[in-house]
């Protein structure tokens, strides 16, 4: 049996997310600040004894609707067969069809979950790598014409979005953001002092990095973005080193993720001391209009 999440079962939903959500992807896992609304259709799966055995939640916020894509916050069942997943998916698709044209999620490689997803009609869209760097000293040499400025939410919101949206326009999976999304990120995430910095080149703002302290005590870096017309000048490397230097001051290891096909960025991260520690598979499903 599938039941929509409401006030009466919200506690059970959040408890299930906390217990099992990390098995697949905890990037946007519902937490204590989760809001029950039309932008986050969510469902619980119950077994014949009315015990919770699965959960699904989809993000349909404004930026996802604009892009025509909905991202799962959680899509998980502890039942051994795929019937539970199918029941959850049917409930989600009833909300998503006609609103977005595609739904997607990330999972780690594994024969069980891959078999389930492919049996439901999902297809692999892309791969991403999780990269980690141990806390070791790094020097940021002075680069002529380069200055770093700490991000100001009131003054720099539009600028942040312009740089990120321009830099990642051709990157698979990118969804354009607006200043209200940046404000939400700042409110939600544990961002250290100087955790968002702009790079100015010869007086013009052309790049940035964003970082946050994760619950397991690492500095997660990303995005790192440089306007296309200024790429190829070592500015991405300068931003990465600046972010790693911040993690050094905080006494934290660094972690980031990168699309597997982004060979240029992957090569940079490897040269700067990052190693691959995990792989995530993006599965997507196109919806009938």
Characterize the structure shown.
- The chain is α+β, with helices and mostly antiparallel strands and 289 residues long.
- It has two domains: 120 residues, Gcn5-related N-acetyltransferase (GNAT) (Aminopeptidase, 3-Layer(aba) Sandwich), CATH 3.40.630.30; 149 residues, 3-Layer(aba) Sandwich (Aminopeptidase).
- Strands 1-2-3-4-5-12-6-11-10-9-8-7 form a twelve-stranded mixed β-sheet, with helices on both faces.
- The protein is elongated, with a radius of gyration of 20 Å.
Strands of the widest sheet, in order across it, are: 1-2-3-4-5-12-6-11-10-9-8-7
Biggest β-sheet description: 12 strands, mixed
CATH class term of the largest domain: Alpha Beta
Distance between the termini: 27 Å
CATH superfamily of the largest domain: Gcn5-related N-acetyltransferase (GNAT)
Structural class: alpha+beta
- Provide the low-confidence segments as ranges: none
One letter per element, helices H and strands E, the order comes to EHEEHEHEHEEHHEEEHEHE
Number of helices: 8
What's the mean pLDDT score?
94
Tertiary shape: elongated
Structure at a glance:
It is built from 8 helices and 12 strands. It has 289 residues and is α+β, with helices and mostly antiparallel strands. Strand 8 (196-201) and strand 9 (204-213) form a beta hairpin.
